[in-house]
Amino acid sequence: MKKQKVIILNSEQQNKQDFDAIHELQEGLQRIDQFPVYTPNLQWFEQMVIQEQQNKRKKLISDLSVFFIVAFIILSGMIISLYQMPAIFILVQIITTIFIVVYTSVRLMKKANHI
Amino acid sequence: MDALIKNAKKGDHLAFAMLFKENYPFLVKYLMKITMNPDTAEELAQETMAKCVQKIHLYNGQSKFSTWLVSIATNTYIDQCRKKKREKNWQGQEEVYRKLKWHFESRNEEWNDCLEALGKLPEDVRIPIILKHYYGYSYEEIGEWMKISAGTVKSRVHNGIKSVRRELKLGEETESHYSEQRTTK
């Protein structure tokens, strides 16, 4: 019974110490909030947004260009192999199917083991 | 949803600028608390705003815009720390708070030992402590932003507070007070 009392006191003591530490932390952080921060004018923000929107558009155009070029190369290769070398076309199809099945099952097994 | 946010989502740069101007001091001060460096805070604030422009379509209006900014800023800082650690440019925890201390001293403002204790903690412990005990976000929210479980956030906050207590010698004072009481009895 006595032992139990001591444990309760210790945990209460610890909670009080935690509370004191948190209170001191909050006071310290409040000082950072009082720190003066220079806010640029509205034009600066507007310029920054326009610049970022332009960057976004440029990135989208370059990503789409890369996508279409790669897609064009792959599709051309597939069509050429289908008409000129059907054996290679079939081999590529088989290898791709096996790769997708193996990759998906390995991923699923890893996920199941992780859970 | 706020009219400003609706317009910003449509690509109105003036609406974006007004939103950012309104939230800029809050964002920089949050970043100052987690980075403990005013210069890094300003750099990261710009990076955060750039990411916001790119990701505005993902903002669903369920939380406040400032909360969304905090989540992006937190991720940006964590990514920057990881990158620096990979590039081995990491200065170590000892260096983190020195710049902030210098800024405080140059303005004749009183430095708080607690900030020093906080600065000595690794950033993955400092961030959850600030988010939980200063901004009042839930463990679940913090876990979601930092991509860790709520339980991990809780244990990091708990251990972080313990370290701060040790650094401030809060436990020792009360322990010695306790032992004094015992010997007098």
Number of strands of chain B: 0
> Percent range for helical residues of chain B?
over 70%
Compute the CA-based radius of gyration of chain B: 19 Å
- Low-confidence parts of chain B: 175-185
Number of domains of chain B: 2
Largest sheet of chain B: none
Radius of gyration of chain A: 32 Å
How many domains of chain A, as an integer?
A: 3
Shape of chain B: globular
Order of helices and strands of chain B: HHHHHHHHHHH
Strands of chain A, total number: 0
Query: What structural class should be given to the helix and strand makeup of chain B?
Result: mainly alpha
Percent of residues in β-strands of chain B: under 5%
Cα(first) to Cα(last) distance of chain A is 42 Å
Helix content of chain A: over 70%
The chain-level structural class of chain A is mainly alpha
Q: State the helix count of chain B.
A: 11
The level 1 CATH classification of the largest domain in chain B is Mainly Alpha
Distance between the termini of chain B: 65 Å
Most extensive interface:
A-B, 32 and 43 residues
